[in-house]
Design a protein that fits this description.
heterodimer, A: about 180 residues, alpha+beta, Alpha-Beta Plaits, 4-stranded mixed β-sheet, two-stranded antiparallel sheet, B: about 750 residues, alpha/beta, Dimethylsulfoxide Reductase, domain 2, 7-stranded mixed β-sheet, 6-stranded mixed β-sheet, 25 helices, 26 strands, globular, Prok_Mopterin_Oxidored (chain B)
């Protein structure tokens, strides 16, 4: 059965500390100026009636990825488990994928190619968790195979109220947020 | 497949485009050589367990080494404080190791003290200079005229040096500038301070109350893990803060209390809990004294009374009090850590401690736990030398003259350096691992005190501001490059952890253990450091403790036998007052001339056009210790001054989010330019800065000049009369556009 990798972010547990971003940077040798994942604190209301959502964000590994369609060289492609990856050998840094991505998930690496979250495929394919999931002090991040009915992500996505970012874009994101 | 440069590939693609399209293979052509998941290659050839020093929490770390370089750090699952997870500082520890601004060689001052001009020196020359100067001070003024300021786990070698040297003057800013009021308050109430890590049971609490604690932004790793665990299980939060913190964003109730009035709120909560008989009467009858006096004391401290003071609605005070009481005894009033705010801090923390007792949470699951230390044998030390001519211990006032202080005040040592302020003047400082220009309030005062010294030496990894004032600067290597003593703090799971050098020291930096030993050799105390190095010291302790050294080195931490941690598990609540009772009413304070029960006294109001300056923490930084770390500065390069949106509109000049302003305090002290964060998330009568920014040290090329220094703007402070802590939230600032000339 084909795998569908997905991630669930529990915004109730997340404190937007950024441990995910630092762990990812050192795991993946992300160059200065770029982040494969980052944190957001979204505030609504006026003092003193306020609400705050803290969450960790990254490439949504869309099932209908506009970056893959937009890429003129095929450097952006759908890899194992539906994860969207970038083949740096093919990438010219033309930024067509960046223009098409509604989530701002991509940046140009110092080496000239576009870079972004890979779901840590090099770890996941060895049955290890992505670096951000492994280090998260609040255990706000859950990673797994959405095609497996017994996996934690499947239970969370189907058993809890979830949202995705910009669903109106029609990209079918595979990073889900528990609210 | 043939290898092509990027440009060649495009040319081939363009040329072949037509042919490929004609053949109908366009899409498949581009996908013919599917790529494999690329491995960044950061997994180590070897992985070394050690524990972190990016903050005082000392989490267990697994350091990956590849080709002699530390590529990444992960949490050690064997270590109870990290449980396999790290906070951002811990994960960013390689940024300290590879900081290009690190101190690389010993330095000897070559100009006036404080001018930050040095010449490089050999270790031999530098150590000889330090030894010579210390011996001079001892000969002229006695051994106790030398003071040690210390922060961090590596301070153990220096405390040992001072003991051998014959001076009791060892101060850590983590006491009188941070957790001191809390320690004093819990000692007065329960008999003992809380220590570190705090013995709190966040994971099992059903309601967690945070009073000015920025937990979640302040990353005490284990506590943040357990906070999230509790929230995940449905625990409710009550947050008291003038600022809508991250924790407030998760809270059932956020009480945006007027700064300086927390104590009034606490008294009102007690009023509701006692009036409505929501306290744990059975527990109090068994374990506490003074309930009648307390009940009478808070009888008039109604929510309406507190509302007029705090600005919090009376219904909100009542509802939150009822929620807090409903969860007892698994209702945790978090003690906080940085508690030196207004000078009345011991009494405020007394109220916190009393409230915990009313809920019956001391020694109970979901409240305050019973902890224990992993048993370790000490190193068999020779007897310390006698110091003829030194002053008797009985001649020196306890805690710098503050009767309830049980540690030396770092600010008291600074004070004793001003001539005639103490029984004797301090003449030399050894400063280990703490940047006193940011750690102590009123850096102007600290700088002036230093000029009275005969000698000052700084031992650090980075060229912090304090190094610029030193006569000698000695470069210590990072925690990843050294062995240190064993760590075995009191904890609910007693454990012992080991720090192991992961890679050899870079440049000419040395472990603090080596520096202290070499210095001891030069001042005639070599016999007090009989071990060859820190590793031998540790091995000896392990052998004497009958611990398998190889196992500890492989795992990084060993957990001892489980202990009962609460009454529910068979432990007796740990109450070590004279009669074994919790002191709701403090006869000790009464005898000393202080209020036996905490009472609210108003703070000074802000002058017109000014805001009270508050400060706190960011999850990516440990005060100013990490702001030069490139990895951690990247997501958080500078602080911002938070200003309420409505208050911003009322300023005499237009202020948009992101504009740069200068802060000017009540004494005319000016900060550097700092970005304004115009936000709804703070009250209109105060502003907020993350602590640790606004460095001025020449050597900190990343951090220098970024953001505003709250330490610089803290030109005054209020001394807690009970334990001597320096309350810093008593400074006011006004905002000026940054472009304007003074």
């Amino acid at each position: 059965m084909k795998k569908r990798y997905a991630m669930v972010v529990d915004t109730r547990r997340c404190v937007a500390c950024g441990a995910c971003a630092i762990a990812c940077k050192t795991e993946n040798r992300v160059s200065n100026g770029g982040f494969r994942c980052w944190t957001v604190q979204e505030t609504s209301g006026t003092f003193p009636d306020l609400a705050l959502e803290a969450r960790s964000e990254r490439c949504n590994h869309c099932a209908d990825a506009p970056c893959v369609s937009a890429c003129p060289t095929g450097a952006s492609y759908v890899a194992e488990g539906g994860a969207v990856a970038v083949d740096r050998r093919k990438c010219t840094g033309c930024k067509a994928c960046m223009a098409s991505c509604p989530y701002g998930a991509r940046f140009v690496h110092a080496e000239g190619h576009v870079d972004k979250c890979t779901f840590c495929l090099h770890r996941v394919t060895q049955a290890r968790l992505p670096a951000c999931v492994e280090t998260c002090p609040t255990k706000a991040l859950t990673f797994g195979d959405l095609a497996d009915p017994a996996s934690a992500v499947t239970r969370l996505v189907h058993g809890r109220r979830v949202k995705t970012l910009q669903p109106e874009a029609g990209t079918r994101p595979q990073v889900f947020f528990l609210t | 497949m043939a290898r092509y440069t990027r440009r060649q590939f495009i040319q081939i693609g363009a040329a072949a485009g037509g042919a490929v399209a004609a053949s109908g293979l366009a899409t498949r052509f581009w996908g013919l050589d599917a790529a494999r998941a690329e491995d960044p290659g950061t997994d180590g050839d070897r992985v070394v367990p050690t524990f972190c020093e990016l903050c005082f929490w000392n989490c267990g770390v697994l350091a990956h080494v590849k080709g002699g370089q530390v590529t990444k750090l992960g949490g050690n699952p064997e270590h109870p404080l990290s449980r396999g997870m790290l906070c951002p500082r811990g994960a960013g520890g390689t940024g300290l190791l590879y900081d290009p601004d690190r101190l690389k060689k010993p330095l000897i001052r070559a100009s006036k003290r404080g001018e930050d001009v040095f010449q490089e020196a050999s270790w031999d020359a530098a150590l000889n200079k330090v030894a010579e100067e210390l011996l001079k001070v001892r000969e002229r003024h006695g051994p106790e005229a030398v003071a040690l300021f210390t922060h961090g786990f590596g301070g153990s070698w220096w405390k040992h040096f001072m003991k051998a040297w014959g001076s009791p003057n060892i101060g850590a800013p983590s006491y009188a500038q941070c957790r001191g009021p809390r320690e004093a308050a819990f000692t007065l109430t329960y008999g003992e301070g809380l220590g570190s890590p705090e013995p709190i049971d966040l994971a099992n609490a059903r309601v967690i109350t945070l009073i000015g604690s920025h937990l979640g932004e302040n990353m005490h790793n284990t506590q943040v893990q357990e906070l999230a665990e509790a929230v995940g299980k449905g625990a409710q939060l009550v947050v008291v803060d003038p600022r809508f913190s991250v924790a407030a964003g998760k809270a059932r109730y956020w009480l945006p209390v007027k700064p300086g009035t927390d104590l009034a709120l606490l008294l009102a909560w007690m009023n509701v809990i006692l009036t409505e008989k929501r306290h744990d009467a059975e527990y109090l009858a068994k374990y506490a004294t003074g309930l009648d006096e307390l009940t009478a004391h808070v009888a008039t401290k109604t929510p309406e009374w507190a509302s007029a003071i705090t600005g919090v609605r009376p219904e909100l005070i009542r509802e939150s009090a009822r929620l807090i009481a409903s969860a007892r005894p698994a209702s945790l009033i978090h003690p906080g850590r940085h508690t030196t705010w207004y000078g009345d801090d011991t009494q405020r923390l007394r109220a916190t401690a009393i409230l915990a007792a009313l809920l019956g949470s001391w020694g109970r699951r979901g409240g305050y736990l019973v902890t224990d230390k992993f048993r370790l044998a000490g190193y068999p030390l020779p007897k310390p030398p006698l110091h003829p001519g030194g002053r008797s211990k009985d001649d020196m006032p306890k805690g710098g003259g503050f009767p309830v202080a049980d540690e030396v005040l770092a600010s008291g040592l600074c004070d004793a350096t001003k001539p005639g302020r103490a029984l004797y003047d301090l003449k030399a400082w050894i400063v280990y691992g703490t940047n006193l220009m940011q750690a102590l309030p009123a850096p102007q005062e600290t700088a002036a005190a230093i000029q009275n010294l005969d000698f000052i030496v700084a031992i650090d990894v980075l060229p912090a501001e304090i190094c610029g004032f030193a006569d000698v600067v000695l470069p210590e290597c990072t925690y990843l490059e050294r062995d240190d003593d064993l760590a075995a703090p009191a904890y609910k799971q007693p454990f012992v952890a080991i720090r192991q050098a992961v890679v050899p020291p870079m440049y000419e930096s040395k472990p603090g253990s080596w520096i202290a030993k070499e210095l001891a050799n030069r001042v005639g105390l070599g016999d007090q450091f009989p071990w060859a190095d820190a590793r031998e010291f540790v091995e000896t302790r392990l052998a004497a403790s009958k611990i398998d050294s190889a196992e500890l080195r492989r795992k990084g931490a060993l957990v001892g036998k489980p202990i009962p941690t609460c009454e529910e598990e068979g432990a007796t609540p740990n109450i070590t007052t004279g009669d074994g009772k919790i002191k709701l009413f403090s006869a000790e304070l009464q005898q000393l001339g202080f209020e036996p029960l905490p009472d609210f006294h108003p703070q000074e109001e802000a002058p017109a056009g000014m805001f009270r300056m508050l400060s706190g923490r960011a999850p990516t930084h440990t005060f100013g210790r990490t702001t030069n770390n490139r990895l951690l500065a990247e997501p958080f390069p500078e602080n911002e001054v938070w200003v309420n949106a409505e208050a911003a509109r009322a300023l005499p000049f237009p202020l948009a989010n992101g504009d740069r302003v200068v802060l000017v305090n009540q004494d005319g002290v000016r900060s550097g330019p700092v970005r304004a964060r115009v936000t709804e998330r703070i009250r209109g009568d105060c502003v907020y800065l993350v602590h640790g920014f606004g460095h001025t040290a020449k050597g900190l090329r990343q951090a220098r000049g970024r953001g505003a220094s709250d330490s610089l703007l803290t030109s005054r402070y209020k001394v807690d009369p009970i334990m001597g802590g320096t309350g810093v939230n008593v400074n006011f600032v006004r905002l000026e556009p940054a472009g304007r000339v003074a």
